[in-house]
Amino acid sequence: MIRMDTNTPANGPGHTHPGSTLSEMDLRVRALETLLVQKGYIDPAALDVLIETYETRIGPHNGARVVARAWTDPAYRRWLLEDATAAIGSAEGFGFSGRQGEHMVAVENTPDVHNVVVCTLCSCYPWPVLGLPPVWYKSAPYRSRVVIDPRGVIAEFGVQLPASTQIRVWDSTAEIRYLVIPMRPAGTDGWSEAQLARLVTRDSMIGTGLALSPDALAAA
Questions:
Q1: What is the Cα–Cα distance from 61 to 202, expressed in whole angstroms?
Q2: Quick one: pLDDT at residue 5?
């Protein structure tokens, strides 16, 4: 069963994976960046620092800590599901806030329901917890096909779900960003939050992946 939680129309061709050729929008962005650097409006070194911060220091590491806390602390999990903005961004939570993280909603995967996130019109994405969006998330093929055929799309990412599992597609907007709480892998009883956070991948918090198993982590 497939359920789509979106009111936004989608468009675009078939799905492609990371590593595809640059889209027309990507080429335009790069051309604009080059022009701004040449005219001295932006400092490429400062830009590199900003990108590196989101990719390595922030990146998906913040989101992984949020998920690991939800796996181990029932009270925090309830708070996260009821008011993700506060649970993630407030001082009492993690303090992960900022641009594109002002209005957060957490959705939880279960054996019966699997959640997938998309932004059908552009690339709205929760930067404070997931860092910069991957290229495929911004592509027109992903934005269109995941709405029409979410089961097929996540299968291309290696996620095979039982036919009985309901798939919900959540459409991020300028007002709301979504964070998927993946299911906790088996065999992790007694693990610390830090250990559990290592199992949480960026894709598992988008819904195009699952959390790593302990064996997969050991083999990585």
A1: 8
A2: 52
Percent residues over pLDDT 70 in the chain: 79
Among the options 20, 119, 144, 164, which is catalytic?
119
Q: Is 124 a catalytic residue?
A: yes
Answer whether 23's CB lies under 8 Å from 139's CB: yes
Q: 113 — phi, psi (to 5°)?
A: -135, 130
pTM score of the predicted model = 0.76
CA–CA separation, 40 and 204 (whole Å): 39
Amino acid sitting at position 141: P
Q: What is the pLDDT of residues 18-60, one digit of tens each?
A: 444 555 655 776 777 677 778 787 777 776 666 666 555 567 9
Which one of the listed residues 97, 123, 172, 204 is annotated catalytic? 123
Could you give the CA distance from residue 125 to residue 209 in angstroms, rounded to a whole number? 16
Active site residue 122: yes
How many CB atoms lie under 10 A from the CB of residue 162?
8
Question: From CA 74, how far away is CA 26, in angstroms rounded?
Answer: 42
For residue 5, which of 172, 180, 168, 179 has the smallest C-alpha distance? 168
* CB-neighbour burial class of residue 175 (10 A; exposed 0-12, middle 13-18, buried 19+): exposed
Residues 6+ apart with CB under 8 A from 107: 115, 168, 170, 178, 179, 180, 181
- The yes-or-no answer on residue 23 being catalytic is no
Query: For residues 108 and 205, what is the distance between their CA atoms, to the nearest angstrom?
Result: 10
